[in-house]
Amino acid sequence: MKSPWIESLRSVALNVPDLAQAEAFYTRVWHLKVVSRSMDAVFLRGTGADHHLLSLHPGSATAQVRRVTLRARSAEALHLIAQATLRAGGTLLEVPGPLHGPAGGHGLLLRDPDGRVFQVVHGDALHADAGTREDHPIRLAHVVLNGHDLTAAQQFFERALGFQLADRTRVMAFMNCNDDHHSIAVADADNDALNHIAFLMPDLESVMRGGGRMKDASHPIEWGPGRHGPGDNAFNYFIDPFGVVIEYTAEVEQIDNTYRVGSPDDWQWPPGRVDQWGISAPPSPRLKEAQRAVFFAPSTSQGSA
After folding, report:
1. For labelling, which of 41, 72, 158, 206 has a CA lying 20 to 30 Å from the CA of 213?
2. Which residues of 128-150 are buried (b: 16+ CB within 10 A; e: fewer)?
3. Span between the terminal Cα atoms of the chain, in Å
4. pLDDT above 90 as % of the chain
5. Considering only CA atoms, which of 210, 226, 205, 218 is closest in space to residue 283?
6. Which pLDDT value is given to residue 303?
7. Residues 6+ apart with CB under 8 A from 148
8. What local confidence, expressed as pLDDT, does residue 60 receive?
9. Which domain holds residue 252?
10. How far apart are CA 27 and CA 168, in angstroms?
11. Residue 249 — φ and ψ, nearest 5°?
């Protein structure tokens, strides 16, 4: 497996109604750390090497996704992705060139046919003090996006970004670019909203402690604890103060070229189950509503984030 062009998922940029409240939540409650700030943005890192995992920006009455940022394997890959994006029916919003945000490097900005915006970067800053810390996110594990045409969305990721299908269930396509089972997934829906953002925790203990900490802060678990089928990862899902669905996860399955791509027939639960363990209740109605309410902001160019 693996994409020939994309090395990893790096970060997500969000527009939020209240920047100060967002910073307070994601630092004090979610356990990220401010690594940089500007007049109109806050950049938050985990304990891993990525410069930042989340950037927060003011300017909308409701939460919006500005972009999802991926890291390219090489500078040459940026130009190959630019060409492939156009062939796949996407739009180049910014051609490959220097980036001026705090992470630096070079990058491009593209929009897929359904309005989702992606930045692809190379040569961005990395932290030398990468490590793990109990109950703190390391990096992003994956982003799940809704798709009103799941097959078309899957094909765009394959053709424009070199992702490969790891598993296909009745309602989701799990897309692979590195050793992680999936870095992006597309959920079958009647819209193209953000479904959720998953943050990788050091271990199962941290996923569970995070659930207790969020509950103490009046953010109850909306789905979980449980263990998924595709990806084999443990999970707890929550809703942030602005309606964004966020997940703590751990133990994501690592795969290679010997992995057999699964079909919907391979991923069917017995009646009453929604995860491998069989202990989790179904996702809450509140979670299901939130998973279809946060959309990508209209974009022509939004600067570096």
Report:
1. 41
2. eeeeeeebbbbbbbbbbbbbeeb
3. 29
4. 95
5. 226
6. 56
7. 114, 189, 190, 191, 192
8. 81
9. 139-198+222-290
10. 35
11. -140, 160
274: left (phi over 0), alpha (psi -120 to 50) or beta: alpha
Report pTM. 0.97
Among 123, 152, 174, where does a domain finish? 123
3-state secondary structure of 42: strand
In a domain, residue 205? The reply is: no
* Phi, psi angles (nearest 5°) of residue 87: -65, -30
- Tell me, yes or no, whether 251 and 282 share the same domain: yes
* Integer Cα distance of 25 and 119 in angstroms: 25
Q: CA angle, 27 as apex, 25 and 28 as ends, to 5°?
A: 70
Is the per-residue pLDDT at 4 higher than 80?
yes
Mark whether 194 and 87 lie in a shared domain. Answer: no
**Other beta carbons within 10 Å of 236:** 24
Residue 76 parent element (H or E):
helix 75-87
Strands of the sheet containing 194-200, edge to edge, are: 164-168, 172-176, 184-188, 139-147, 194-200, 245-250, 234-239, 223-227
pLDDT in tens, 244-302: 999 999 999 999 999 999 999 999 999 989 999 999 999 999 999 999 999 999 864 55
| Type of residue at 199 | F
pLDDT, tens digit, 9 for 90 and up, residues 79-134: 999 999 999 999 999 999 999 999 999 999 999 999 999 999 999 999 999 999 99
Q: Is pLDDT at 305 greater than 70 in this prediction?
A: no
